[in-house]
């Protein structure tokens, strides 16, 4: 409990958070499509605030999903994208669009949240089933492998369904499928995501010690009084819903849910009581920053999807973790 | 409180342990010995309620009930306020938070997130009950890890991490705690900490706990044990008072190597394995 270091971590995290927000708030395009730093005009203010809100919520939800998955699986490589949850959501949302295209738009009345949640849960279930080690435990590396395959197949399914859609419905889905931070987010999705994110942070704060205890071996956590299967079930549901709301809002985004928790722990330490909130802030910071960086790309060929930035930045990070043997050094 | 097994059979994967008839006495240290794969860890997990008996009974019996069994004539007069008996199945089905108040368990290979500080790891022992900083501090002092309190667990040696896990079990103790179960605590400890651990286990037994320890260290077993349970291939090979079981003619067939008695190393003679076959046991 190195409180001085923890305080320093909070300061660093808050500064990064503020910098990301300021950057996204000020960056824009001039008449020629070149990026500029300027205070927003009355038109662009609404857009920038909308993008900030989307980034804040989706980043936090992804990162919370990531930290809960890492706790659930005792694996620092776990994240909603790597384990296929994001792609599972994507496939189910695409399927919902397709059903709506056939059966009538009223079928999509509930929005993308329900199919997204179903998809995330399904993908996690399949990943867990095939990622188990023979003895019944979970092997970190085969779990990640299984998740990557589930993710790839789900993404392919999503593309297939997209291809089946009538032409006029394709662009909306295609833009979403690349990952973007919407400037005009859907109100229902924003409300649901806000509730989910706050619930995620609150539970981390209240049940921090229980989540810490999930880091012990099953026998140990059970004998100090943790109902391990029940906590596991909550973690599966919680991380799936969090990944689903983020995906419904911004599409499948790579690696925010992986880097966020690591950034949080390196700032404030691994205790969940503090690291869950820090993970939410880190995730927001990362996604807002990525959304700002996107504007620096030459605009002649149109908008660069934020998903591209996330994958470009996050892929190497994952490889560094793998190289450092993070999966093995995590537990002792 | 006595933990009693009646014809209990436990399945752990393909491994079958039992049928077992034995009891772990309160206020005594019972040492479980046996070759690799004889079922020591399975027995300890069963005693900790982490495994459910496949058939047969096993019960955790309050001390007064134990007294009644020894003095059946008392049973009648006391039957109006007969104490609760927990069967092992009930122990295994009990809510973990409730079970955590009754017993502590230290596994053979403790695990923790490497980034947690020693203090955080020890505090986890009280996750299901009221926080108790003085008890946590005392547990760390008793296991000699208080100087490392702010170190991350990942920086510690194997033996130090075993002491963290043992400190967690000590921190977990409440007024209701009846059982302390420790699986092979000595394998990573140096001699001075092995001795300190032996004293600590004796101390817990003197406070009325039923202490159950598995070990391969016969010097440790001889020094700490009141009772011995010797397992072989999933059944009990021998059980009884330490001085009756820790003798060459009982241990030799179980471990298939010669043993001999050594005087003057401890308060009572020790029975230790011999390293060469041609030495004549005394």
| Unreliable spans of chain B | 63-84
Tell me the strand order in the biggest sheet of chain B. 6-7-8-3-9-10
Total number of distinct structural domains of chain A = 1
Largest interface: A-B, 28 and 42 residues
CATH superfamily of chain A, by name, is: ABC transporter involved in vitamin B12 uptake, BtuC
Helix fraction of chain B?
25-40%
Give the DSSP E fraction of chain A (strand runs of 2 or more residues).
Answer: under 5%
For the secondary structure, the number of strands of chain B is: 12
User: What's the CATH architecture of chain A?
Assistant: Orthogonal Bundle
C-alpha termini separation of chain B:
39 Å
Order of helical and strand elements of chain B: EEEHEHHEHHEHHHEHEHEEHHEE
Task: For this entry, give a set of tags.
heterodimer, A: 332 residues, mainly alpha, ABC transporter involved in vitamin B12 uptake, BtuC, two-stranded antiparallel sheet, 14 helices, 2 strands, 72% helix, 2% strand, globular, B: 282 residues, alpha/beta, Rossmann fold, 6-stranded mixed β-sheet, 4-stranded antiparallel β-sheet, 12 helices, 36% helix, 25% strand
């Amino acid at each position: 409990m190195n409180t001085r270091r923890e305080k320093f971590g909070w300061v660093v995290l808050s500064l990064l958070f503020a910098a990301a927000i300021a950057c996204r708030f000020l960056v824009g395009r001039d008449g020629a499509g070149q990026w500029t730093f300027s205070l927003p005009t009355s038109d662009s203010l609404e857009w920038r605030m909308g993008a900030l809100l989307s980034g804040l919520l989706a980043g936090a939800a992804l990162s919370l999903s990531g930290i809960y998955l890492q706790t659930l699986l005792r694996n620092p490589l776990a994240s909603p994208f790597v384990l296929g949850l994001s792609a599972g959501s994507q496939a189910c949302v695409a399927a919902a669009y397709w059903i709506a295209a056939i059966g009538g738009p009223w079928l999509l009345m509930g929005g993308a949240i329900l199919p997204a949640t179903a998809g995330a849960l399904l993908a996690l279930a399949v990943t867990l089933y095939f990622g188990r080690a023979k003895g019944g435990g979970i092997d970190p590396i085969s779990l990640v492998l299984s998740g990557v395959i589930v993710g790839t197949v789900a993404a392919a399914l999503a593309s297939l369904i997209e291809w089946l859609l009538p032409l006029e419905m394709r662009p909306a889905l295609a833009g979403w499928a690349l990952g973007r931070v919407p400037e005009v987010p859907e109100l229902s999705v924003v409300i649901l995501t806000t509730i989910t994110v706050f619930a995620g942070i609150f539970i981390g704060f209240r049940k921090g010690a229980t989540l810490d205890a999930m880091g012990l071996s099953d026998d140990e956590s059970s004998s100090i009084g943790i109902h391990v299967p029940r906590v596991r079930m909550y973690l599966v549901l919680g991380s799936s819903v969090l990944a689903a709301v983020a995906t419904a809002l911004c599409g499948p985004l790579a690696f925010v849910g992986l880097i966020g928790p690591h950034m949080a722990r390196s700032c404030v330490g691994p205790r969940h009581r503090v690291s869950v909130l820090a993970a939410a802030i880190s995730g927001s910071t990362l996604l807002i920053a990525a959304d700002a960086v996107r504007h620096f790309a030459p605009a002649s060929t149109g908008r660069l999807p934020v998903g591209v930035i996330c994958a470009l930045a996050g892929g190497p990070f994952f490889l560094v973790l793998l190289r450092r043997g993070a999966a093995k050094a995590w537990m002792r | 409180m006595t933990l009693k097994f009646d014809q209990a059979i436990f399945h752990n994967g393909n491994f079958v342990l039992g049928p077992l008839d034995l009891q772990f006495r309160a206020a005594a240290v019972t040492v479980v010995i046996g070759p690799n794969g004889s079922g020591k860890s399975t027995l300890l997990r069963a005693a900790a309620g982490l495994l459910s008996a496949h058939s047969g009974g096993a019960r955790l019996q309050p001390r007064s009930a134990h007294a009644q069994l020894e003095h059946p004539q008392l049973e009648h007069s006391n039957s109006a306020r007969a104490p609760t008996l927990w069967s092992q199945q009930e122990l295994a089905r009990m809510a973990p938070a409730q079970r955590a108040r009754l017993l502590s368990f230290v596994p053979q290979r403790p695990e923790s997130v490497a980034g947690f500080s020693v203090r955080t790891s020890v505090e986890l022992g009280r996750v299901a009950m009221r926080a108790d900083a003085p008890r946590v501090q005392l547990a760390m002092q008793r296991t000699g890890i208080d100087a490392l309190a702010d170190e991350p667990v990942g920086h510690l040696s194997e033996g130090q991490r075993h002491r963290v896990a043992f400190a967690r079990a000590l921190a977990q103790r409440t007024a209701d705690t009846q059982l302390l179960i420790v699986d092979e605590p000595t394998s990573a400890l140096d001699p001075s900490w092995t001795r300190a651990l032996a004293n600590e286990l004796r101390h817990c037994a003197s406070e009325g706990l039923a202490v159950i320890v598995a070990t391969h260290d016969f010097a440790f077993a001889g020094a700490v044990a009141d009772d011995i349970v010797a397992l072989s291939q999933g059944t009990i090979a021998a059980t009884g008072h330490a001085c009756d079981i820790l003798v060459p003619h009982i241990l030799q067939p179980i471990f298939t190597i010669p043993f001999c008695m050594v005087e003057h190393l401890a308060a009572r003679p020790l029975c230790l394995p011999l390293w060469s076959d041609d030495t004549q046991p005394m």
